[in-house]
Amino acid sequence: MRPHASAPPHRPVLTLLLAAVLLVTGGLLLASPGRADAADPLLSRGKPATSSSDEDSTLTPDKAFDGNPATRWASAEGSDPQWLRVDLGTTASVSRVRLSWEVAYAKAYRVEISADGVTWTTLATETAGNGGTDDWTGLTGKGRHLRVYGTARGTSYGYSLWEMEVYGIADGTTPPPTTGAFTAVAAGDIAAQCTASSSSCAHPKTAAQAQRINPKFYLTMGDNQYDDARLSDFRNYYDKTWGAFKAKTRPAPGNHETYDPAGSLAGYKSYFGAIAYPAGKPYYSYDEGNWHFIALDSNSFDDPAQIQWLKDDLARTTKGCVAAYFHHPLYSSGGHGNDPVSKPVWRILYAAKADLVLNGHDHHYERFAPQDPDGRATSDGIVEIVGGMGGAEPYPIETVQPNSQKRISGTYGVLKLDFTDTTYTWQYVGTDGQVKDAGPTYTCH
């Protein structure tokens, strides 16, 4: 599939060309169509790149293949056609090309492959591009050179790509094993006090979509039940929808779970029991494949016991990849905005080279480029995703944060997270089953 997402204008001067010559060396057509391209390795990172033009000396072709989401290539402004090309260094069977557009995107372009850099064969054609991320999968092409050839700009500027990624299998190599691969589904801010009898009730629809994905397990990022998370409300609402896969759920609490008149987290603890309190505390960890998952209670980040437990837990793990999830996001462009309560925890996670943080609280979807606890973009940073569209009333986007890459408000959905022993990626899937956004494929620190 090819999810399109409009990139929000944030720098009117930039010009970005579609640019997608992502690697592949040699040959012509026809790769093995039966192969699972999602597991194919990234071929284009750091490979030699050329372009038809550059806007200036800082926006060069290599910037689209350096793995840094904060750098980009941009073509000269106001002229068609333009192209971006990569030399994979050897012949390869290309299965996937992923293009992350800046504001200056391509309305029309071709993804082409070549054995010699002279004669080109079309792998994919776009005629109604709208920017954001274009993820071309299921491709069957063989060659050494790959390019994105833009024929119509989407803006008055040029073409600009943050990243162009080419995936496939180089000649003479064996496809990597998929050992350790698994899928999880995540959402926060879920069960409003309504049922499927109301057409406007969203959590039955997000639950149905989550169940259709049929993941290894489900994560929740707090505010599982509104308004004050009484046990009776869990039974009357959450249990009728997301409760269908309660046994496969690994929850975290939110601020609404603290409002229970019976006591903070009382209904939450009674409903989930040992699922949410496997060690007698509302924070815990578990492993799947080469991943270590940590569920935290961000209502009590001032509790020294939880902080010490987190440090000890990270010191003990032998897994190569780390993901944490809790309710309050350190960075958010929504109504609640940035929440500094999470910064000390981010510092601990960042020092331990954690990869991914999942949050709720703000009722929208948002993904951020890798950043450090102080909000500086860096390739060794943590990727944060806000996934608060599980069923509660949406919040508008208010103040866009510096490293925010994509924001969606008003569209209910769930996160489909795909993990391997060394990588992770995700899709934001709406209740209609359509992919509304797709994240890059990141390699674990």
From TrEMBL:
Residue ranges the record marks as coiled coil: none
InterPro entries xref list: Calcineurin-like_PHP, FA58C, Galactose-bd-like_sf, Metallo-depent_PP-like, PAPs-like
Domain F5/8 type C as annotated: residue spans: 31-169
Signal peptide positions (record): none
Official protein name in the record: Discoidin domain-containing protein
One Pfam family, short name: F5_F8_type_C
UniProt keyword annotation of Ion transport present: no
Keywords: Signal
PANTHER family: ACID PHOSPHATASE RELATED (PTHR22953), PURPLE ACID PHOSPHATASE (PTHR22953:SF153)
Region (Disordered), start-end ranges: 39-76
